TrEMBL record, chain A:
<keyword id="KW-0808">Transferase</keyword>
<dbReference type="GO" id="GO:0004674">
    <property type="term" value="F:protein serine/threonine kinase activity"/>
</dbReference>
<keyword id="KW-0418">Kinase</keyword>
<keyword id="KW-0723">Serine/threonine-protein kinase</keyword>
<protein>
    <submittedName>
        <fullName>Serine/threonine-protein kinase RsbW</fullName>
    </submittedName>
</protein>
<dbReference type="InterPro" id="IPR036890">
    <property type="entry name" value="HATPase_C_sf"/>
</dbReference>
<feature type="domain" description="Histidine kinase/HSP90-like ATPase">
    <location>
        <begin position="11"/>
        <end position="134"/>
    </location>
</feature>
<dbReference type="InterPro" id="IPR050267">
    <property type="entry name" value="Anti-sigma-factor_SerPK"/>
</dbReference>
<dbReference type="InterPro" id="IPR003594">
    <property type="entry name" value="HATPase_dom"/>
</dbReference>
UniProtKB/TrEMBL annotation, chain B:
<dbReference type="GO" id="GO:0043856">
    <property type="term" value="F:anti-sigma factor antagonist activity"/>
</dbReference>
<dbReference type="InterPro" id="IPR002645">
    <property type="entry name" value="STAS_dom"/>
</dbReference>
<feature type="domain" description="STAS">
    <location>
        <begin position="1"/>
        <end position="110"/>
    </location>
</feature>
<dbReference type="Pfam" id="PF01740">
    <property type="entry name" value="STAS"/>
</dbReference>
<dbReference type="InterPro" id="IPR036513">
    <property type="entry name" value="STAS_dom_sf"/>
</dbReference>
<dbReference type="InterPro" id="IPR003658">
    <property type="entry name" value="Anti-sigma_ant"/>
</dbReference>
<protein>
    <recommendedName>
        <fullName>Anti-sigma factor antagonist</fullName>
    </recommendedName>
</protein>
<comment type="similarity">
    <text>Belongs to the anti-sigma-factor antagonist family.</text>
</comment>
Amino acid sequence: MSEKFNCRIKNDLGELAKISKAANEFLEPLNLDPKIVYGVDLILEEMLTNVITHGYEDEGTHEIDVSIGLDEDEVSIVLEDDGAPFNPLSLPWASHSADADELMEEGLGIHFVRNMMNAMQYRREDEKNILEVCIDL
Amino acid sequence: MDIIEEKSNDIAVFKLNGSLDSNTSPAFEEKVVAIIEGGTSKIIVDFSGLDYISSAGLRVLNLASVKLKPSNGNLVLCCLQDYVREVFEIAGFDQFLPIVATMEDATAKFN
């Protein structure tokens, strides 16, 4: 079993609905655990919101490549953007005792992603941020 | 997403259907802030039809909770699906927002 989905979106928050719909059309026939599908949706929304909101210093249009791959034991999500260098793995982990207020400040989105994924890798290549997030099946 | 707003006695009830994400949260924020600023201090959010929430949705609930503090108001959530509830737990929101199983339990919180 190996399936792949690719989509290119613009750096506009309005594009999130489009990618969510397209990703779900890809995932639905695969009969995955609904919890995995929820995780993919959440990772896409939180990480893309971050890139679109904080990644660009100019007002111009940029493209972000999104791919989702499925094999026997994991789903992998890869995001490629030409925004400012940003490694989400460099953010501090929220402590176990962190309350909701602290999490809001430290970044609730990345906190969710860290709780939903099993592995995350970042690299900067050809002036692009490439983030891969994997969820075990 | 659909937002159905009802008022029973002095309790405002919001029933959310679909996804509370970065696209749909602003519309919910507008409604909930308007009702709090209009003087309502008792709010129930019925999540039975909600199948997805992201940090954008949680931010609106946090904002509502903060805005209710001066009037000693309360925000009660009911009928969460398992995955949605898990997101509240990951965020620690279950520590400060009352989350109950049914609409009856939610109404009882205000009696």
